[in-house]
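Protocol step 4 of 5: obtain the predicted structure for the target chain.
Materials: sequence only (see below). No template structures provided, no constraints applied. The aim of this step is simply to have a reference model before the mutagenesis design in step 5. Sequence pasted as it appears in the construct record:
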Amino acid sequence: MTPSATSYSAEEISAARDDACASAKSVVNAVYEASVPLVAALPNRDSPEYKAALANEQAVVLVEMEYLRLHTRPATPPEIADPMHDYIDATLAVLAADTSNQDRNLPAQQSQTAMDKVHAACQK
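Step 4 output (structure tokens):
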């Protein structure tokens, strides 16, 4: 027997939507602020500045992605939840690229595209 899908009230959906949208805004700002020093130090990945910026970015991204997971509740509408999960995955891929000295451009573009979809859905 297949379990039936959970249904949520309009109030639960609205609250989950509002929470996810507000969380997305704060997370984007925090991740951006953490990435600025890292990107500035990218030309010299062996520098102490790069290593410090990478450590900060790692901490911020891991905390903020978990925050997004917690604030993307099951009642969150799929037009917000799906790209939010894509944003989390892509942002973690950026972090993995930075940590392993790989090119971050593709996952960074994917992250931006996913968050653009979240912001667009939150405007509706």
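Step 4 remarks: The helical segments are 10-41, 48-70, 78-99, 105-123. Residues 10-123 form a domain with the Four Helix Bundle (Hemerythrin (Met), subunit A) fold (CATH 1.20.120).
Proceed to step 5.
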